[in-house]
Amino acid sequence: MFLSTFEGSIDARGRVLVPSNFRALLGGEQKFYLYPASDGSGFLEAGGQELMDGHVSIFNNLPPNSRERQAFVNAIFSKGGEVAMDQAGRAVIPPHLLKSAGIEKDLLFVGAMDRFQIWSPERYSAYDAEQTEFAASNQDALAQPFYQVRGIIGPGGRS
C-alpha cells in the first residue's frame, strides 16, 4: 500500500528520486505508469502494472464505443506514459506531464493506497486543506461501510 508523503525535487539533469518504499511496492519493476488525474485536480497519478491491469479490466467491461470508456481511456492511456527508473531509483518525468501538474522543480510524492500521486507543493497544500476539512465535517460517511464490513447492525438498527 502506498502510504505517506515525501518531498522531492527535479535535479539539474531532469531526474527525480522516487521514494524507496514506493519503488519497493512496484514489484521490482524499474518503471511505473504516470498520467494526469482525470478529475482535473492538477496532479499526476502513478502506479505499477497492477494498477494499469485494473484499469484495463474495468475498461474491458464497458462497451467499446461507450463515451465513458473512450473518455477514460483517453485520459489515462493517451495522456499518460511509462516512466523508467535507473538502478538508483531516479526517473525523468516527461515535461508535458510536469507542466500539466504545475511542477517546476519541487514536488511531493503522496501515497494513495493502490497508487501514488505526484503534486506541486502549492497545489497539494490547497487540496490537503480542502480534503482535511471535508473529512472532519463528514465523519458519519464511514459509519455504514464500517458496520457492513463487520457484518453488524449499525446505529439506528441499520445493518
Account of the 3D structure:
By secondary structure, the protein is an alpha+beta fold. It has a single domain (5-120), classed as 3-Layer(aba) Sandwich (Chemotaxis protein chec). Helix content is 38%, strand content 23%. The protein is built from 6 helices and 8 strands; from the N terminus they run E-E-H-E-E-H-H-E-E-H-E-E-H-H. Strands 1-7-8-4-3-5 form a 6-stranded antiparallel β-sheet. A two-stranded antiparallel sheet has the order 2-6. Strand 3 (31-36) and strand 4 form a beta hairpin. The longest helix is centred in the last third of the chain and has 17 residues, at 121-137. It is globular and about 55 Å long. The mean pLDDT is 92.
Task: Write the CATH homologous superfamily.
Answer: Transcriptional regulator MraZ domain
Main sheet specs: 6 strands, antiparallel
Instruction: Write down the overall geometry.
Output: globular
How many DSSP helices? 6
CATH architecture call: 3-Layer(aba) Sandwich
Distance between the termini: 29 Å
Structural class: alpha+beta
The third-level CATH topology is Chemotaxis protein chec
Topology as a string of helices (H) and strands (E): EEHEEHHEEHEEHH
Radius of gyration: 18 Å
Kindly state the mean pLDDT as a whole number?
92
